[in-house]
Design brief:
The protein is mainly β. Helices cover 0% and strands 46% of the residues. The protein starts with 6 loop residues before the first strand and ends with a strand.
């Protein structure tokens, strides 16, 4: 693990921060907290405002308020009124003891105070389960911003990830209004099968595009076998039939083999890094980083630098940032990297050169 070759500045603290995204065209950073709060932070002067109008979340286990995403095509020099997409865990069932991820679309209005207005649910994970983990619910727009990709975790249920009658353990591709994309592999099938782009995933916590239009994702393995994958249409990634890790009980899971019929990970980790987030760096501030992937390590408590070369990947370095679990990443408009620690009082760090 290398010593950090950059300047690290603390920019505030958050309680159980989960995700963050810059409002395009501005220096304003939106940060979500798992317990259900969102703040917009003006990184120019460190002022922040709480956002109202958020959905009620099922807070507990790994559930709560999740990801936040904005459309780059709505770029402007002030927040004003922007389309906002939010993911979160919600309850269901007659007794409220079932849980699943949801995605909602609304308008973030910061003309005076900041509030989300006109919030409408456009997607729900199917089915809900009694478990409270592996929601995934990361959000990513296609490069042309015509589609929304949603990471839908296996919810700790395992076998449904190999059953296309549900969306557990999948990547979902939708139009921006939540309807299924016309080029989905089973677009002619009933819902929710018509939402699926790929399947056989466990718990995806980071997705991003490279400059050549490849969609990369990082996901948690079980005891070992964290995976970095290129997501392709109609591809099956093997979970839980194959994994380069084992069950937490010690029970063996067969490793991937050349003839197993599943897409193999481009890279995998045992011991795990336990990823919290991933981005592919686009800026010029950090020499040698452009076009490479950066992963926030929960288990490794480090920033993991991955060298991407076409459809190949290898770990280039790890950077210790104080020894705490790292949850989320965002690239600033000037190319600085923003890192959010996990847990209560997690520090927001700005990395620059």
């Amino acid at each position: 693990m290398s010593e950090a070759a950059f300047t690290t500045e603390e920019q505030g603290t958050f309680n159980e921060g989960w995700a963050m995204a810059f409002v395009p065209g501005t220096q304003v950073l939106a940060v979500t907290q798992k317990s259900g709060e969102m703040f917009v932070l003006n990184t120019a002067d460190a002022s922040q405002v709480a956002v109202s109008g958020l959905p009620e979340v099922a807070y507990g286990g790994q559930g709560g308020l999740g990801d936040v995403a904005f459309l780059e095509s709505e770029r402007a020099d002030s927040v004003g009124s922007r389309t906002i997409y939010i993911s979160y865990a919600e309850t269901g069932g007659s007794d409220g003891e079932y849980y699943g991820a949801a995605v909602a679309k609304g308008m973030l209005n910061c003309a005076t105070s900041c509030a989300v207005e006109g919030l409408e649910v456009i997607w729900r994970q199917s089915p809900k389960t009694s478990r409270r983990g592996h929601y995934s619910h990361r959000l990513l727009f296609s490069p042309d911003e015509q589609h929304l990709y949603i990471a839908s975790g296996d919810r700790q249920e395992l076998e449904p990830a190999q059953d296309n009658s549900n969306t557990l353990g999948t990547v979902v591709k939708l139009n921006l209004d939540g309807s299924p994309a016309a080029d989905n592999p089973w677009a002619d099938k009933p819902a929710p099968t018509n939402q699926i782009w790929s399947w056989g995933h466990r718990n995806i916590l980071g997705m991003d595009w490279d400059a050549d239009g490849r969609l990369w994702e990082i996901e948690h393995g079980p005891a070992g076998g964290d995976e970095l994958n290129i997501v392709k249409r109609a591809a099956n990634y093997g979970w839980p039939t194959r994994s380069n890790g084992d069950h937490y009980s010690g029970k063996d899971i067969p490793d991937h083999t050349a003839d197993d019929g599943f897409v193999k990970p481009v890279a995998d980790w045992t011991p795990v890094i336990a990823p919290g987030d991933m981005l592919i760096y686009r800026g010029d501030m950090f020499e040698g980083w452009k076009g490479n992937a950066l992963i926030a390590g929960l288990g490794s408590s480090s920033l993991v630098h991955i060298d991407l070369d076409g459809e190949s990947a290898s770990e280039a370095d790890r950077y210790a940032l104080g020894g705490n679990r790292l949850r989320a990443l965002a690239e600033g408009p000037d190319g600085a990297l923003w890192v959010l620690e996990d847990g209560e009082g997690g520090k927001l760090l700005k990395l620059s050169r």
